[in-house]
Each structure stands twice: as C-alpha cells, then as structure tokens.
Amino acid sequence: GSRVIVRPSGTEPKVKVYIDASSVAGSPDERMAAAAHTVATLESAVRPLVA
After folding, report:
1. Quick check: 5 and 18 in contact, CB under 8 A?
2. What is the DSSP string of 29-41?
3. What confidence score (pLDDT) does residue 22 get?
4. CB-count burial class (<10 Å; 0-12, 13-18, 19+) for 48
5. d(CA 35, CA 5)
6. How many whole angstroms separate alpha carbon 30 and alpha carbon 51?
7. Is there a contact between 16 and 51 (Cβ–Cβ < 8 Å)?
C-alpha cells in the first residue's frame, strides 16, 4: 500500500508532503525495491502539483 499526505507547515509559509509505501510480496530486498519504486513514482507525480 501507499499514501501521500499533504499538509501546511505550522511555522513556515509552505506545504509539506510525506510519501509512504510498503510491499508484502517477495524477499526483503525485493520489497524494499518495490517500495522505493512506488515512492519515486508518486514523488514524480506530486512534485509538479506542489512546486
């Protein structure tokens, strides 16, 4: 699963973005690679929206 959390900063005039991803299939290395790929994909989709 994965999620993107967008919230305003409490102290600065900017937006904070948090991206979480996890995978349950495969070896630990395969899960890490799959989660990293998901984070990269979500980051590239979200970045233009908050830049």
Report:
1. yes
2. HHHHHHHHHHHHH
3. 93
4. exposed
5. 16
6. 31
7. no
Q: DSSP class of residue 2?
A: E
DSSP 17: E
Q: Give which of 44, 31, 34 is closest to 4, Cα–Cα.
A: 44
- CA-nearest of 41, 39, 44, 49 to 18 is 39
Span 3-48, pLDDT tens digits: 999 999 999 999 999 999 999 989 999 999 999 999 999 999 999 9
Closest CA to 19 of 31, 45, 28: 45
Q: Which residues contact 35 (CB under 8 A, 6 or more apart)?
A: 21, 22, 23
